[in-house]
Amino acid sequence: MNKLSLIGQAVALSIAACGISYAADSAAQSKVQIAEPFAAHVLVSGLDAPWDMVWAPDGYLWVTERKGATIDRIDPKSGKKQVLVKIADVKIGPQHEGVLGLALSPDFLKSDSKNYVYAAYTYMNGDSERAKIVRFEYDPKAHTLGNQQDVLAGIPAGSDHNGGRLRFGPDGKLYYTIGEQGHNQGKHVCEPIEAQRLPTSAELEKKDYSAYVGKVLRLNSDGSIPDDNPVIEGVKSHLFTYGHRNPQGLVFVGDTLYSSEQGPSSDDELNILQAGGNYGWPHVAGYRDDQAYVYANYSKAKDCESVKYDPNHIPDGVPVQKETDWNAPNFKPPVKTFFTVPQGYTYSDASCGDSFYMCWPTIAPSSVAYYPKDGVIKSFRNSLLITSLKNGAIYRVLLNDDTKNVQGDVAKEFHTTNRYRMAVVSPDTRKIYVATDNFNGAMDESNKPTQNLANPGSIIVFEYTGK
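Given the sequence above, the corresponding structure tokens read:
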């Protein structure tokens, strides 16, 4: 495999696109001429856990730094970074806490616009951790964000699986993803999963949003509940969909809302979100097919604290339930999984050592973007681009011509020894910008786990150099 050397940046990338290896150099931009050539370079490094990234109407990349607690404006040509605001009351944790989602108002930088910018982050409310969605006003002359106002506060949050993606839909509503807080696993193993629990009218009257775990919200830009939100079991709330594990990717393609969601040891999902839909977690992972996954409810085990947690080899005394033992009339299966494996799959690979979980059949999808039908890169046209934290790659999923479902196989693009957190497509469709995580494991060029990331806390640009 050819290697991409980035001179002056002290970094190295190995890249495969469309099944072909290629090389480039940040100084000389040397190329290997192939059917669809690419070059790559690091735009900026030293970011403190970049999390969300949007292409703003001013032609700049706007980025949240999860651990840095900032919103930045980055020049997509020079990589020069300008901090627009540092948020004061952010609860920062090692992996899932901090400044997360970012969304610009639909009329941003248009005539007479108030230039509102929305962000989501975790904070402490007394002894309890919560998340909130806030609104800033942007000063385009000073390039600063100010006049912070709460839009919706008291959202469930914790040290694991906060979701956090924030997007405006074509309907002008805000959509926000919330994970199930990592319950029933790891250090939260004895806490029950509540992704199926629905809010009551009494809770809503008290602004008690504790039932919002494992949900996708839909709200007006002032934080109120839209009149046309779904009524679920007699209650209208901010809930748009429920039964989610850790949905982190959101993208509208026309009026179809796609979401990527992290599964357990298998069955990461690509979903189409429909109002009032139930996406099955924790009763179902992926398809309702009784393949490999069973719901092991550790929180119901006798003496849970003394039970050894293993997600794939369930100890005696832990209640289990097959996927087909559960059903709901509004269950929505995914349109694609990454990956479904058969019953009896061992999940064990001695060569992975202490990083055994890295070798499970999952990709840890972290975002999803749309590559348009009229894009320059022919093989990418009308595709969803799903970033992988675990495999340091973009998984490309072709859509049907009407963009309302998937078509064909999945292609793996741009593999490097990194954790890909977020991707955006440039307006000219020639470049794909990828933000990388700062730490934790990834698969290297030999598909072996490593903690040595090539380009932590960076934005990498993959540029199409063909005609």
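The radius of gyration is 22 Å. Try to locate this feature in the token string yourself.
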